[in-house]
Design goal:
The complex is a heterodimer of chains A (626) and B (318). With 626 residues, chain A is α/β, with parallel strands linked by helices. A 7-stranded mixed sheet of chain A has the order 11-10-12-13-15-14-21, with helices on both faces. In chain A, strand 19, helix 16 and strand 20 form a beta-alpha-beta unit. Chain B has a 9-stranded mixed sheet with strand order 2-1-3-4-6-5-9-7-8, with helices on both faces. The chains are: A alpha/beta (626), B alpha/beta (318). Strand 17 of chain A pairs parallel with strand 2 of chain B. The structure holds thiamine diphosphate and magnesium ion.
């Protein structure tokens, strides 16, 4: 340690929220540093929303902008529902990853940037030049840049600073934000539980080194006051919530093939599922995964399969079979950017139409989308029950934002009634058909192999109630009606969505999936400006929640907000007739005949509330006194 | 009722005094063409079901799409007539969930060795306890005479009017090349006694038993097996106490090869041999690891699960 005397600790600035990010080359541990910071903040009672900053490759070359890897934490005094707008404080391990964030517009204009400064004096002249150029680029904005001798400091304790720099960084953040050191140490112990005691101790020493350094050299402190907790909370990401939700729903088989960003659902389940009597089956491909899940469901369970866009494409033929044979199945699609391999690690909501119309032929099925990480948990319970009661496919559309976002939510209280009943192998009543469709609802009792008196053969060929292959023309019309009717019946059981804000106004935004927090925050901010805007967030996409037309009629303008592509009006060749619009807008226009507008973007990142606010302003008369 | 094995309690088959006759396994009237080899296979399977007294409702036949895949409709058991090429994943899902069910799989050559090839290879490796029948007529029959992977080179079809250009795929060599495959046999539908004996051996094998059944299509591929049907000298029987022994046909098929089904290297040589069509059990190793067995976990009651969920949530508690 170099300094001799400690200055008086600066007075902390109190803020309602602050957004922090740690970026490094991949493999330098910025993510672990961020995870611990986020977890500790949540435990201290702060609102937290964290997102991973992920490079597309596992081990990109060092010091390239595309290799930026890290973690972003939005810290709030109250609940935080989305990732926010821009970063207020960034801590970077090299200038290239920092410049990458700057170029993405991720940093607030007045952000504080803490940066490892060893590159400034590096022996390699190219690196020194790169540093100088980056600094010049950053100097075009009023950032406050603070050089930090991270490596030099770490080398006073360890031989290889590459391992452990992240703990030094964590120490700096702990000092600036007044984080509880004991809780941090607990988290470090947890993170390195599979390593030796010596590893733990070294990490703690580096943590303390970082904090001490910051106490001496950083002249500001930030206080985002934690709110006392009023109810027990849990903190996890959306994929863990989906996995845990599947368990709470009593599901016992997850069949999958690895694909980002869905895979971590199965990573989580692979770790714990067997304890709950379940298994994760890693199939040879997504088609087989669907087949295994359908086989398991046919045999009496409700199994599920989890994938992302390219895998959804492969499963579609099997989905048609499940719909045709009325075998319950839950399919999770954790959406990423598309088409094709697209943006494997980034959020998008471009699979809606593919999900709705997934299978060739008329293949009515249910599509739901959780709007929050908490809902990822509960939606699995809903999905399983609907799949079973309606003998159909339920698709759950999550996305990369929910998958990797981490936020606290009220601890769910499990309920035995959420779980599946044991398989009923009672004899099939005399004369009962394989599909004893209720003439009104199309619903029928599920039959499972092993039930005496059944012995039906299910088939993907058009069939009658007895599962006999249909050779007469009326049968297909009637069976199609029966499968379709079930959706109308489900809709009759749903409540109209609640309107966020006033029930009438100049503009109604409609969203679905992970954008809820950002949309509602934008609505709040606009309303504070006097703009008459409200929003509706849909969980059911098929069938749609009822009463939409009546809700829309109370607003001068209705506009969807979606993370998918739409043409910009006014772009070359784009006309009112050929404009490709947002996917939910497409569906809502068709079903309500309301002239619905859309505001959609595909930035490869979650929508920012500030951007949505701009879209609101563009679409509304000047609010307030105007 | 509650033995702990499988994803759910193993359910004991309903007590029954009844004796199941062959006719008790008859489903819809088979609509295959007159002279189609599938009729003979159906008859042998029904005979097997009756001989083994399999409870119809405890038995599931899973198939893909093709003429051969109509099989489940013609049986009075549970049946799953799925999609082209994908019978094996469905059967795997059923068996992983319900070890108490007896699961058979019926596929055509296009179904199994072309569109379903990936599943076929991996199913052999999983070695789940399934009885798998490949009804190989060397042609796509349902779609009216297109070349399949097992169509002989030079054979004229609607997609190869000049004759198929590639040498045909040998399903036996493929199966024997898959790590952890545990039972590979070949039989022919025109030798009902051999067919029955082979089905029986396959049924009694624990693990995935793969049986290639040479099957005539009288409409599109008569020529493929005609020579072998007419000239028994083209066929060699594999004989061994651990394989199948069918004394009643030994007078017809004079060429016999003593082959120990535990000898994998010999099995591969036989599979590749072109001098004769070999019928019998090429390979059998009941000690191979079974995926359905090693993945079996004790079931949980709803209450147990609830307690465990609570403990799990503690890990995430703020
Ligand atoms: C995905 C898909 N592709 C193609 C088909 C059309 N198709 C139906 S059966 C079949 C081939 C049947 O041949 P095989 O499996 O040998 O059975 P066989 O009719 O000879 O018994 C094909 C290509 C289909 N049903 N599904
Ligand atoms: Mg065929």
């Amino acid at each position: 340690m170099t300094a001799t005397s400690s200055p008086v600790a600066p007075v902390a600035t109190r803020l309602a929220e602050h957004t922090i990010e740690i970026v490094s080359d991949s493999g330098e541990g910025a993510q672990k540093c961020g995870q611990i910071f986020g977890a500790v903040s949540a435990k201290m009672g702060n609102g937290v929303w964290t997102v991973e900053i992920i490079p597309a490759e596992i081990q990109p070359p060092p010091r390239i902008p595309e290799g930026a890897s890290g973690y972003r934490i939005r810290l709030g005094a109250g609940t935080v529902t989305n990732w926010g707008d821009a970063t207020n404080l960034a801590l970077a391990f090299n200038e290239q990853v920092l410049v990458a964030r700057h170029r993405l517009g991720a940093l607030a204009p007045d952000a504080v940037l803490l940066i490892e400064d060893k590159w400034a004096t590096h022996e390699d002249a190219d690196i020194r030049t790169a540093w100088a150029e980056a600094m010049a680029e950053l100097a075009t904005r009023p950032y406050r840049i603070i050089p930090v001798p991270m490596e030099t400091e770490c080398l006073t304790l360890v031989d290889n600073a590459r391992k452990g720099k992240n703990m030094f960084a964590l120490g700096i953040l702990a000092c600036i934000y007044g984080r509880d050191m004991e809780r941090i140490k607990e988290q470090i112990a947890h993170a390195f539980r599979k390593k030796s005691e010596a590893v733990y101790e070294q990490n703690v020493a580096l943590l303390e080194l970082g904090r001490n350094w910051a106490e001496e050299h950083i002249d500001f402190r930030i206080e985002v006051t934690p709110a006392p907790m009023t109810e027990p909370l849990v903190v996890m990401n959306g994929n863990e919530a989906l996995g845990l939700g599947a368990i709470a729903a009593g599901m016992e088989l997850c069949a999958m093939y690895p694909i980002t960003p869905a895979t971590s659902v199965s990573h989580y389940l692979s770790e714990v599922f067997e304890r709950f009597g379940g298994i994760v089956h890693q199939a040879e491909d997504e088609i087989a995964a669907a087949g295994v899940a359908i086989g398991s469901s046919y045999a009496g369970k409700v199994a599920f399969t989890v994938t992302s866009g390219p895998g959804l494409a492969l499963k579609t033929e099997f989905l048609g079979l499940a719909i045709m044979t009325e075998i319950p199945l839950v399919l999770i699609d954790v959406q990423r950017g598309g088409p094709s391999t697209g943006l494997p690690t980034k959020v998008e909501q471009s699979d809606l139409l593919a999900a709705l119309y997934a299978s060739p032929g008329d293949a009515p099925h249910v599509v739901v989308a959780p709007a929050t990480i908490e809902e990822c948990f509960h939606i699995m319970v809903t999905a399983r029950r609907i799949a079973e009661a309606f003998r159909t496919v339920v698709m759950v559309l999550s996305d990369a934002n929910l998958a990797t976002g981490v936020t606290p939510f009220p601890r769910p209280k499990g309920d035995v009634r959420w779980q599946a009943d044991p398989i009923d192998l009672a004899p099939v009543p005399e004369g009962q058909k394989a599909y004893q469709w209720d003439a009104e609802t199309g619903l029928s009792r599920r039959i499972v192999p092993g039930q005496p008196g059944g012995a039906y053969t299910v088939t993907g060929l058009s069939h009658d109630e007895g599962s006999k292959v249909a050779y007469s023309s009326g049968v297909h019309q009637r069976s199609s009606a029966m499968r379709s009717r079930k959706l109308a019946v489900l809709q009759s059981l749903l409540a109209p969505p609640t309107v966020y804000g006033d029930a009438e106004g100049d503009l109604l935004l409609i969203g679905w999936g992970s954008t809820k927090g950002a949309i509602e925050e934008a609505v709040d901010r606009a309303r504070a400006e006097g703009i008459r805007v409200s929003s509706v967030h849909l969980r059911f996409l098929s069938p749609l929640e009822p009463g939409l037309k009546a809700i829309f009629s109370k607003f001068a303008r209705v506009c969807t907000v979606e993370i998918n592509y739409s043409d910009e009006p006014g772009d070359p060749y784009i006309t009112e007739e050929n404009r490709r619009i947002g996917q939910l807008a497409w569906v809502l226009r068709a079903t309500t005949l309301v002239d619905i507008d859309c505001w959609t973007r595909v930035p490869g990142e979650p929508l920012r509330p500030g951007s949505i606010l701009d879209a609101i302003r563009e679409r509304t008369p000047r609010g307030g006194a105007a | 009722m509650t033995a702990t094995c499988g994803l759910l309690p193993v359910l004991e088959p309903a007590e029954h005094e009844a004796h199941y006759e062959i006719t008790d396994y008859e489903g819809a009237r088979a609509r295959w063409c007159p002279g189609c080899g599938d009729h003979s296979i159906l008859a042998s399977v029904q005979k097997l079901l009756s001989a083994e007294q399999l409870t119809p409702e405890q038995t599931v036949f899973v198939s893909g799409i093709g003429c051969s895949s109509r099989f489940p409709h013609y049986l009075r058991t549970y049946g799953f007539h799925g999609i082209h090429g994908r019978a094996l994943p469905v059967a795997t899902g059923i068996k992983l969930t319900r070890p108490d069910l007896q699961v058979f799989v019926v596929m055509g050559d296009g179904d199994c060795t072309s569109i379903g090839a990936a599943h076929w290879v991996h199913a052999l490796r999983y070695n789940v306890n399934l009885t798998v029948l490949l009804l190989d007529n060397g042609i796509y029959a349902l779609t009216k005479k297109q070349t399949s992977p097992t169509t002989p080179q030079g054979f004229v079809s609607n997609t190869s009017p000049e004759g198929g250009v590639l040498p045909s795929l040998n399903p036996l060599s493929v199966a024997l090349g898959v790590t952890n495959a545990s039972f590979v046999a070949q039989t022919a539908e025109w030798s009902p006694a051999h067919l029955y004996a082979t089905l029986r051996a396959a049924y009694h094998h624990r693990g995935l038993s793969f049986v290639r059944i040479l099957q005539r299509c009288p409409i599109y591929s008569t020529a493929v097996y005609q020579a072998a049907v007419q000239d028994p000298a083209r066929i060699a029987l594999l004989v061994h106490d651990d394989g199948v022994v069918v004394p009643e046909i030994e007078k017809i098929y004079k060429s016999q090869v003593a082959h120990d089904p535990h000898d994998l290297a010999a099995a591969r040589r036989i599979a590749d041999a072109t001098d004769h069509i070999h019928l019998g059990v090429l390979y059998r190793d009941p000690s191979r690891l079974r995926y359905d067995e090693i993945r079996r976990v004790p079931p949980r009651t709803a209450e147990e699960r609830l307690t465990l969920i609570d403990a799990e949530l503690d890990r995430y508690a703020v």
